[in-house]
Every structure is written in C-alpha cells, then in structure tokens.
Design goal:
455 residues; mainly beta; Jelly Rolls; eight-stranded antiparallel β-sheet; 2 helices; globular; binds 2-(3,6-dihydroxyphenyl)acetic acid; binds fe (ii) ion
Length: 455
C-alpha cells in the first residue's frame, strides 16, 4: 500500500524529439511485454491517452500508456467554470473584431489575483475547435501559483512561450520547468498545474486545433541544424498519492468547465509512449542563414511546425529571430516590406526586435493578418539604408518569436478594445522617405566589381 505522499518536484528529463519514451518512478511499475495486464504492477490502473486516431499510420501514431493510482475518470461531473470569460474558442463576428489594418499591443498588465488559468486571455485566432480547424493565441498573465487546480485543453496542443517569470509545470508525465527563452509543448488532453517561483509571470500560448508540432524538414540543409532533436526534453515520472480536494479545469469546445475530485491528478507512477510533453531551450537553435547577400525568408528560423493537409503550408509555424551574425553585403538587412498570404503574430520576449526601433517593448505583440502590408518602421529603414555594411552581430540579448499561420488571424473583442492596443501603430510607417529619382544613374553592382554587364 502506498502512503499519502506529496513530493516537491525534482527535474530530470529524457532527451529526443518524438521518441517512444518510458519512465518509472517506482522500479518495475511498467508491465513487462504488454500494456493491459489483468492486474498491473503495484496495483496500478492502466489508462491510454490517444493523441491521434487509433488508426493513424505507424509513423504518425501518438499515444501514451499511464500506470496510475486512480483512473482519471474518478471525478464528479463537470460544471461550467465562470471565473474567466476571456478565453475564446470560436472566432466569429460575436467574439472578434477582424481588420486588415496592422495591430499591435503594449505588454498586457498582470493582475495580482490570477493564476495561470484565470489569467489566460485569448488575443487572437481563427476557426472552431469543435471541428478541429483553426488556432487560438492566448496571453497568460498570472501572479499566483495554481493551488490544487489542474488545467487541460481538449481543444488542441499548447505551445507555451514564457516572456516573464519561470513556470514550474507539474504534468501527469512528471514536472517540467521553463523560463523565458525556453518553450514547453503540452498536448491536447494532458493535465497540468503551473506554479510561479518568480511571482508575476507573462507569456504567450499558441494552441493548434488540429495536428501536432513537429520539427521542420531540412531539405538541402542536410541532416543537422535548426532545432536539433536531441535538445528536446521530456519529463520523467513523478507521482503524488494524496486524497485532498482537486479541481480539474477543462477547456472543451472553447468553453471552460470545472470538476472536483478527491485526489491529485498527478498520480502517474509510470508511463510509456510517444505522446508526451516536452521543453526546448531556444539558445540551442542552430541558426542557418545567407552568408552572401539578400534577406532570406524567416522560415529558416522555424523551430517547430504544425502541418496542414496542404503540403508546405502550416497550420502554424513557431519561428524565432535569434541572436546571430549578419554578414549579407549590398543588402537591405532588416525584414523586408511585404504582404503575406499567411498571417503573422509577432511577440518580443526580451531585447529589441530588428524591424522596429520604437515602442515595441518586451511583452508587446502584433498581428499582421493575411495580406496586411507591413515591414520595418521608418527609423529602421533610415538606418538600414544609410549604415555601412560590415559583418556584425544582430539580436544579441534579444529574442523575438512569430506564430505564422495559414489562417486569417483576427483579434478578439477583448484585445481589440484593450487600452494597451496601440492605435497609433500605423504612424511608424508614415515617415518613410520617398527616395525615387528617375534621373539617378543606376548603381554599379558592388557584388560584381568589374562586371558591370552583370545584372
Ligand atoms: O514581419 C515580420 O516582422 C516577420 C518577418 C521577418 C522577416 O525577417 C521576414 C519576413 C517576416 O514576415
Ligand atoms: Fe512579416
């Protein structure tokens, strides 16, 4: 008989992306050679968590077997949870204010009395989780640890990007710690509880209603580079055997529900499988870029992608703009002006973003929805067109991220009406000078000195 036991978390991880992991907090807790013996070791219960349909082909099939003290089904019925009305699931004219204008926000303030669940606010998204089509983008603003409360989303996988404060996340698979410049992915249906050792914390969450995050293909880059699989870390089993009162808060079909139960949901003594949460340190990203000329599309900075059914077109890409050398000659080096058939949600974690010189502070975010024109602000254009180009560092002590999606992003009504929305954002482009001069002599191509006949 196991005794009542609540441990404090100790953090150990298994390395690799998408592996078939196995982990035991007690020796021999995993059944040998089968998943569902008549009686499991230590009198545990076997419970499967399926992240893909049973019938998905072997290469894409994801599931985990838990060996737990009580099956998850031992809870009272779910009731509506009304303490947070700012989580949006379906993005329609009732819930959002669509606009083709550029949108950005100063950092959202952090209330004093909220934990991760009550401080979650949906900023943007598209689609509907009931038909598994779309994404949601949330900001969490929390100052309290979750107290015997666990959260789970039946609507999608959550990629968590801390911007301020470390998160100590207890999951059914074991504890995961993430700080700014690290990310965690917690997939559909997994239960987790967030403690805040640093106090007030803020960050962004990308929730995908279909598919799972995977590493992008590397093509001609070869077998190595970008985010390397060995740098992803999945927790190891750690359990609590308690009979205290817990609340499970479930986001299901875009709506919050709460259910009480008389035990900790983190009572998994052992598990094995390939449907498991993970963390990744963005400092491990191996940056690949042009070493000759021109600004390369930011897809070279893709950390993780969630593919759609259209080859090469993502439900969502998680992209970063990491510290690196910039060496491209005769090149307008900042992000170029453009209009994109994909939508872009950009957030600054710390430092400065290379496309904006003013007012885009750590914690700020922007939405440039499908085909919305955007690019470097006037001050950035001025310096990029006049500076002498030498090899140098860029984005040192900075980290910017982008959620890029095939969906047309729209701001929620909460975000659109928020006092931190920068209604003057459009002004950052109004002073871009017109330098057109039809009488100007075409410049010699400095990349091909002596070859003036070259284009
Ligand atoms: O618009 C943005 O800020 C993101 C971005 C960066 C870049 O280097 C090229 C294209 C792009 O959309
Ligand atoms: Fe862009």
């Amino acid at each position: 008989m196991l005794t009542e036991d609540k441990q404090s978390n100790s953090y150990t991880y298994q390395s690799g992306f998408g592996n078939h992991f196995s982990s035991e907090a007690l020796d021999g807790a995993l059944p040998v050679g089968q998943n569902t013996p008549q009686i499991c070791p230590y009198g545990l219960y076997a419970e499967q968590l399926s992240g893909t349909a049973f019938t998905v082909g072997r290469s894409g099939n994801q599931r985990t077997w838990f060996y737990r003290i009580r099956p998850s089904v031992m809870h009272l019925p779910f009731e509506p949870y009304t303490k947070n009305s700012h989580i949006i699931g379906t993005f329609d004219s009732q819930t959002t204010d669509p606009t083709p204008t550029q949108n950005r926000w100063m950092p959202f303030s952090i209330p004093e009395d909220s934990d991760f669940v009550d401080g979650l606010r949906t900023v943007s998204g598209a689609g509907d989780p009931t038909v598994k089509n779309g994404i949601a983008i949330h900001v969490y603003t929390a100052s309290q640890s979750m107290d015997r409360r666990a959260f789970t989303s039946s609507d999608g996988d959550m990629l968590i990007v801390p911007q301020q404060g470390r998160l100590d996340i207890t999951t059914e698979f074991g504890p995961i710690m993430v700080a700014p410049n690290e990310i965690a992915v917690i997939q559909r249906g997994m239960r987790f509880s967030v403690a805040l050792p640093d106090g007030p914390s803020r960050g962004f969450v990308l929730e995908v209603y279909d598919g799972h995050f995977e590493l992008p293909d590397l093509g001609p880059i070869g077998a190595n580079g970008l985010a390397n699989p060995r740098d992803f870390q999945t927790p190891t089993a750690q359990f609590e055997n308690t009979t205290d009162g817990w609340t499970i808060i479930s986001k299901s079909q875009g709506t919050l529900f709460a259910a009480k139960q008389g035990h900790s949901p983190f009572d998994v003594v052992a598990w094995h499988g390939n449907y498991a949460p993970f963390r990744y340190n963005l400092a491990n990203f191996n940056v690949i870029n042009s070493v000759s000329f021109d600004h390369i599309d930011p897809s070279i900075f893709t950390v993780l992608t969630c593919k759609s059914a259209h080859p090469g077109t993502a439900v969502a890409d998680f992209v970063i703009f990491p510290p690196r050398f910039e060496v491209q000659m005769d090149t307008f080096r900042p992000p170029y002006f453009h209009r994109n058939c994909m939508s872009e949600f950009v957030g600054l974690l710390f430092g400065n973003y290379e496309a904006k010189q003013g007012k885009f502070l750590p914690g700020s975010c922007s939405i440039h929805s499908t085909m919305t024109p955007h690019g470097p602000d006037a001050a950035t254009v001025q310096s990029a067109t006049t500076r002498e180009l030498r090899p140098g560092r860029i984005a040192d002590n900075s980290q910017t991220f982008m959620f890029e999606t095939m969906f047309q992003l729209r701001a929620t009504k909460w975000a659109a009406k928020h006092s931190h929305r920068d209604s003057d954002y459009y002004k950052v482009w109004q002073d871009i000078p017109v330098t057109f001069d039809p009488d100007q002599k075409p410049r010699t191509n400095t990349r091909h000195p002596g070859n003036e006949h070259w284009p």
